[in-house]
Structures are given as structure tokens and as C-alpha cells.
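User:
I study polymers; will you set down one protein's sequence and C-alpha cells?

Assistant:
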Amino acid sequence: MRLRYGIVTACAAAVSAQKTPFEHVDPLIGTVNGGHVFPGATLPFGMAKACPDTDADENQGGFSSDNSSIIGFSHMHDSGTGGARSLGNFPIFAQAGCPNGDINACNYTSWERATPRINGSVHAKPGYFDITIASGVRAEMTTTNRTALYRFTFPETPSTPNTTLSPLISLELQDLPNTRTNASIDINAQSGRITAGGSFSPSFGTGRYSSFACVDFKGAQIKDAGVFSNSRATTKAKSIEAITETERFAERPAGGFVQFQKPTSANQLLVRVGLSFISEAQACRNAEKELAGFDFDGTVAAAEKVWAEKLDVVKIVPGGASDVVQTAFWSGVYRSMISPQDYTGENPLWKSDEPYYDSYYCIWDSFRSIHPLITLLDPHSQTLMVRSLLDIYKHEGFLPDCRMSFCKGFTQGGSNADIVIVDAYLKNITNGIDWNLAYEALITDAETIGYIPTENLDLQGVGTETRSISRTAEYAYNDFVIATLALALGHTADYNKYLERSGNLYNMFKADQNSTINGTDTGFTGFLQPRYTNGTWGFQDPIFCSPLQDFTGCYLNPSGRETYEGPIWLYTFFAPGDMKTLIQTLGGADTFVERLDFFHDSGMAYIGDEQAFLDVFLYHYAGRPAKSAERAHFYIPRLFNDSVNGIPGNDDSGAMGSFEALAMMGIFPNAGQDVYFITPPFFEAVSIRNGQTGKTATIRNVNFDPAGRDIYIQSATLDGKPYTRNWLRHGFFLEGGTLELTLGAAESKWGTGAEDVPPSLGAGGNGTGRVGERRWEVPAVPRVEMGMW
């Protein structure tokens, strides 16, 4: 998912004072300019995500760092998604009192209660968010796994004329995208407890889901309680039942409220919101179990401890790296652990002993960098996510590509859960995983045709007749990773079948197709092109759907054409399993490098969409790893930095954050393979402690230059022995060791030999073919005991 970005220059040379990784995290990065980052309080992969919601046009993450007003505080969000808003169910709002004591003079609907923020009042850190609005009400929030806790501090003298301090907390039966139907609310007049439920729509899929909340209070005596409808309130009723589908948001906003006497201490009122997708009763149980004591400061401290432990698996030696670079790095690591969200025990669709994770937005976005980074830093969580994907397959019939709020999401391209699963197998993510079930799921995904014809009609669903090129390219790589797993599990016939199919990309390669920009030929020939069922060729301009031509012309819609969120130029580079054949097809290594340079330098490349990530590092396959390092420094920190618009596109559940984190550690992966591209880290040294073995892998730069001039590897040693390969395997992180990179100011011969480039294992690569002909093996994966988890 995408937006057009503006360049942010981040050349600050000042080196920060010594901070912990936790202190370097800035959750507000990416909260304007379409980043859509959720900056509020949450735990790693937590269900509860508390945050102010604004009335900004782009409030997909709830809050936005602009001048928009605050319309409520809600308790579940997604982070970084494009398209429609999601979640934000049952927003609450705090008012210091009602003018003249009249409850109907308070504001209940989102457009009435919208209140400007006080500039400079926003503070955010992992597990905590703080803001003061123009009414003088300060709102602090923190969370446990399934419960949000708010601490509202009210002004002694309310800003509204003729108002005395008598706080009112309202809850609206609504969500952020305004999709509520069939909702109900009940208020206990004695305890003040509010219970609510409703039916809502997902943001990028089909179906509906139910959500429930349980709200309790501490810190003041109850004065009155009631419900509101159509912005009018009454204390005579304490419940509203069965708001029907015909009574939608614009026609009947509704909810409930509790009004209090003056708070007993420091004008503060605590509001606890338990959450559930099962029932109101379970929402209450979650709150009572997790936050029985309403301990706000203790909950903040507990969240800080959890986040600090997550970040502690990585150590850096800054070596003079600027505060911009360090903050961007640690914030990227942090954002990669916000989603997917752990809903285990909250699945209303089926009963299972397996974990359940949700908010996969989408695996098309996340397979390239999010899941590989989680594999490195938190293998236990990645194992649970893979098991969850397989349990979804077991009960729904297919692996998801996108899934949110227990609903089936739209598919953007291929079957990219295949890549996540095979990547897991190759990297020792195995504990409790049924690999026979996994293989069955992949084969179920795989049975389609050799290429996706242009204008193909979907006879079985509601899919658009688009994306034939990008889907063919992605399905070809899906077939490659299936072949990899087939070989490892001893399915020789399937290995041969899917390895051959992994070359289907070339069914849509038109060798004589040229490309022009403003009538001038680029000088490069041979591009993917649309192809009809009868084998004849169509045409799509290779630069279409890039910043150079109709940038937003290929979304998921009926007029989206034959590539998805990117031009043919980009998809012609996508052959991750067999780059050797692609390089030969495109004219050899020198021409390939020239073409890749042109793609990046012409303004055609858009790093704010995930497909471009791998193109930063494809120079490795042409024996030019130095140019990959140049490209990484070209984009970071120019477009990835510590500002509120410090990412170039939708964060997509942490995709931008994981890209910058992996690139800055110098180990970007080729997802679905046991391959990490070596480039110099952006720090003097970086170390990763493996969560399975407890061993530490360190990458150290010799002659490190924090200004980013000496970024070229002259030589390398691995545990003291010369190392010329320009790539690593995952065993380095499992077994530990030290990779030392000696840097210089110019490109060297290091990593440039034919024997130094990453393997090409596909249908025509360096050592592939049918069993009996192949010259490669699936890397042996050491099986490590999981007791250290």
C-alpha cells in the first residue's frame, strides 16, 4: 500500500547522549504524510492498542501528528495500513462537566466532541501515550494484553463557561470507519460499569465481526448514568438494545455515559476498558484478570519492562552514529513488533488449542521483511504465527494472504503465506509445527495455471480481472518455495513439478519490448507484458504505475491494469529464486546493473512500497554488493529517519520499520530462502542474541565512518577466517560468531566473484534442474531444542 512521499533530509551530526534502546524509540514516527502508524500504548503483538483518535483524513492509525482535533479514545487499532480505517471500537471521551449541570449540554457524537489538542502536550513511549486537549483534560493511557487503562486528569476549573467539575465519561457505539450495526449497551447505575457490543466490518476484506467492551471506573463517586441517542441524553434509561442494520451511523449515533462527583484525588479518574471478541462477559473477565488493581503507574512500568526485554536481544555499538540514525533504527525494530496481533483465546469462529494471530495487513506486505525480522529477534512469536496460519488453513481451507478481525481479506498478489512458512522451515522455526499439514496447505495454494491470462474472468469469486503480470511473477516464486520444501520433505515428483513451474514468469516476458519516457527510449529491451489466453500479447507501458506515469493507477480495483502498486519495470526484476537466469535474460551482469541503476535513479523506483525493498540489494547477484550498500545509504536516512513523516509510505504493520532495521543491521534477507545479503551496518557493530540457542552473532565494521562515506567492504573475516561470500545463512545467527568487515572509501573486489554471489536455485539457476541433474541441496537446518524459550 502506498502514498507519494516527500524527501526529509536528516543530516544531523550531533551524537546523542547514551540512551537505552527503549529511550531511542519514538512511536510518533510515521504519524503524518500517509505513514498511518499507530503511536499509542500497546504490548508486543498485543490486542489492546489505546490511542486518541483524530478527525484527520488519514487517521488509519487512530492518531495523526497534525492539527486535527481529538474525537475520542479507543482501545484497538491497526498500524500503518492503507485504504479504509479499521477497529477503533467503542471510543470513550472525557469532559470535565456539562454547562449548567445539564447532561444534554455535554457533547456525545464525534463531530460535537472534537476538541483541539494543546501543542507540545503529546508524549509517547512504548506502552504509554499522553496528551492534553484544549478543554484542559489530560489523557494518559497504557495497556495490558486485552485491557486498556486510562488516567484522566481534569482541570479544577473547567474551561467551558458555567461548568463545575463533575466529570462525564461517554462511550459511543461506533468504530473508526463508522460501520456499526446491531449494537447494544448497558450501564449499571450503582457500579457505573458499562458493557457494550456490536457488529462491525473489516477494512480490507469481506464479512463482519463482533466486538465487546467492559468499562469500569475508579477515583470518584457516581453522580448519574444514562444513554444517549441522536446526541440527546437521558438518565431515565440505562440500556439500548439491538440497533439494527437500517439504523446506521449517520442516522442514529448512540451510546452511554457515566457522570461523577469531583474526583477524590488530584482530580484524576481511572477508566479500565476490557476487550473481547467473544462476549461482554469475557471482556469483563479479561479486565478483572489483567488489571484488578487499576495500577496505572505499575502497568506502565510493566509495559516498559516487556518492551525493553524485546529490544534487548539486539545490541549496537553506535560508533558515532547520529541520534537520527539510532532513533530511526530502534523505532523501526519497535514498529515491527506491533502486529500481527495475538488474539489467542478470543477466536469466536472455532475452538482450537493452537495460537490465533490476526491483523495480517497483509502478508503481501509482511513476508519480505517483517516476518524475517521477527524470526531473527523473536523466533518464539514467529513460531506461534506460523502455527496460527496453519490453523487458519485447517479451518478455513486456505492460507490467508490478508486477514483482519477474523475476516477473510482481499488478496493483493500471490499466495505469500507460502513464503513465510518455507522461510520458517529453513530458519529452524519448527516447534509444534505440523509440517505435513504445512505442506498440504502449500499444495492447496499452488494448484493454478502456468500464467494468469490478461482479462481472465473469475468464475468462482469476486476477484478483479487485473494484476495478471504481478500475480504470475508472485505465483512463480510461490512455486519455487514449494519446490524447496518438497525437496526437503522427500516429495521428489512435486519438487520437479514446482521447480519447473517456478520459471512461469518467462511466459510473460516479451524479449523485444522496449520502454520510453516522454518519447525517449531508455535503451533497455525485454520486459514483462500482458498476455491473453490464446498466447497473443497485450501492452502496458513499462513505466505505468510509477512516479513517472499514473502513479496510483494500479490499485486493487477493476481498472487496476496488469501490475499491482508498481510498474512492469519493477516486476521484471522479481525472480528471487533464480536471479542468475534473469540477469542472463536481461543482457548479462553489466547490463543488469545499468538497468537496476536506471530504475533507482530515474525516479521510477518507489521505496514506499514493499516490492522495491529487494531491488535495493539485487546488485549482490551481479557481483556488485558495493552498489547495494550505496542504495541502502541513498534511501536511509534520507527517507527513513526520526521525524513524524520519517517513512516514505504506509508502514503496513511495520514493513517500513523492518526494512530500515534489517538494512541498517546489514543483513537484508531474500525471504523464502536461507540468504541474507551482507552490507555494512550503519553502526560500528551490531549483535543479535538468538532466542533459541542463546548464542550471539556479531557484525563489526573496521574503519567505520558514521558520516556514511566509507561504506565499501574491502575484505571480511568470519570467526577470524577470510570470508568472500557476499551473503550469509541463518546458521550464523543460530550458532553465533563474529563477521568482521573492513571498510574503505571505494568499491573493491570483495564479494564480486561468481562463487561469492547468492545461489540461484530456480528452474534455470546455477545448479538446478530435475532430480538427478541438480547441483544444489536444501541447506541442512540444525534442529535446536526450544527449552530456552
